[in-house]
Amino acid sequence: MPDSSPSPDSADQPTPASIDLQAIRVRIDAIDEQLIRLLNERGDLVLEVAEVKKKAGLDIYVPGREEALLRKLCQINTAQHGKLTEKAIRSIFREIMSAALALEDSLKIAYLGPAGSWTHQVAVHKFGNSVEYIAEAAIEGAFARVAAREVDYAVLPIEHSAEGAVHHTLDHLVDAQLQIYAQILWKVETVVMAQDDDTPLTAIYGHPQMLAPCRPWLSQRFPGVKLVESASSSLAATHAETEVGTAAVGTPLGAELHALKVVAASPREFSSRARFIILGRRSGDPSGNDNTMLMVHANDKVGALLEVLKVFASRNVNVRQIENRPVSDDPSGTQARFFLEISGHHEDSTLQEAIADLEKQGAKVKVLGSYPAPRWIEER
Ligand SMILES: C=C(O[C@@H]1C=C(C(=O)O)C=C[C@H]1O)C(=O)O
């Protein structure tokens, strides 16, 4: 039977519910008005900050300050027994800070594209929706844009849970006059997207890095469906858009941009993890909790790495990660190249002493950047 009762929203026939709603909404409106006034007051202060930074030649974007602020706001929310989740507080203030960045300067961010790529999603999460984004097809192109000051920063992948280090990014840092300004750790659910969820699937396309960790889940969830590798997540989505009975694996943002429906989302254990760098023209300022990426060239001999590690261990410096790479301009093959991520900022006296010691031992050291220690961002 059709429902003939008046809608609680109906203005012509007031009901007790609509009267109650109206009264509450008047109070919400009043709070929103105050919020707008406060946001604009905040905006005035942000512009004052921008003046000081411009005079002092400082970067507009300060990831250490942003993270400290977000953390403090979540603590305040907990102390006030606030109902909003930490995720909600972070995303609301992410956008407030994005608007602040846009007020201070027209911040331009390049990311490894195409639009809808995983890196795009991470970049938007980090910088919000008020700044300008530029898709860049190649890692070297992103480096060139930052060097030429066409963009302020570039967001690039540096490591993936399924495939290990993204060597191309690390290798480019060796010769570039650019540095890691910040880092992002990211966990995201992988989704399967298709035109609709009724048509039986014959194939699922995906970038090898997205497919690899999800194979066990996909073969269980979609038994008998062929898994086909594509050059990019965007290309995979294009297949799903144009070929009936196919789907693509990718991120929720990719589904949205290709107007595809999410037909399945991976369980937590099949979510992908990755590290990204925010490439800038300098290191981040010391924030009190930083990491540093170093490139070390040492003589390729027995115990070479051990000697390097001893320099840090003897100073109680944690070596968080090690990557070993061939040295491209070393035809004699006498050099070994290590990428080390260590705790601390390169301006700390302990790290400066350690670097000086390595150089005394005959090693060549290059600081590839110091940046605030990132926290995991989990996107579900
Ligand atoms: C306002 C500033 O500039 C930017 C905007 C921030 C904000 O809106 O709170 C924080 C850090 C910076 O990325 C600042 O450095 O304090």
From TrEMBL:
Record keywords, A-Z: Amino-acid biosynthesis, Aromatic amino acid biosynthesis, Cytoplasm, Isomerase, Lyase, Multifunctional enzyme, Phenylalanine biosynthesis
GO cellular component: cytoplasm
UniProt pathway: Amino-acid biosynthesis; L-phenylalanine biosynthesis; phenylpyruvate from prephenate: step 1/1; Metabolic intermediate biosynthesis; prephenate biosynthesis; prephenate from chorismate: step 1/1
PROSITE patterns attached to this UniProt entry: ACT (PS51671), CHORISMATE_MUT_2 (PS51168), PREPHENATE_DEHYDR_3 (PS51171)
One Pfam family named in its UniProt record: ACT
Span of domain Chorismate mutase: 15-108
InterPro entries in alphabetical order: ACT-like_dom_sf, ACT_dom, Chor_mutase/pphenate_deHydtase, Chorismate_II_sf, CM_dom_sf, CM_II_prokaryot, Preph_deHydtase
Enzyme Commission number(s) of this protein: 4.2.1.51, 5.4.99.5
Annotated catalysed reactions: chorismate = prephenate; prephenate + H(+) = 3-phenylpyruvate + CO2 + H2O
SUPFAM superfamilies, per the entry: ACT-like, Chorismate mutase II, Periplasmic binding protein-like II
Domain ACT: start-end pairs: 293-372
Gene Ontology MF term list: chorismate mutase activity; prephenate dehydratase activity
Location of the protein in the cell: Cytoplasm
Protein origin, superkingdom: Bacteria
Domain Prephenate dehydratase: 108-281
GO biological process, any: chorismate metabolic process
Function: Catalyzes the Claisen rearrangement of chorismate to prephenate and the decarboxylation/dehydration of prephenate to phenylpyruvate.
UniProt name for this protein: Bifunctional chorismate mutase/prephenate dehydratase
Organism: Brevifollis gellanilyticus
Source taxonomy: Bacteria, Pseudomonadati, Verrucomicrobiota, Verrucomicrobiia, Verrucomicrobiales
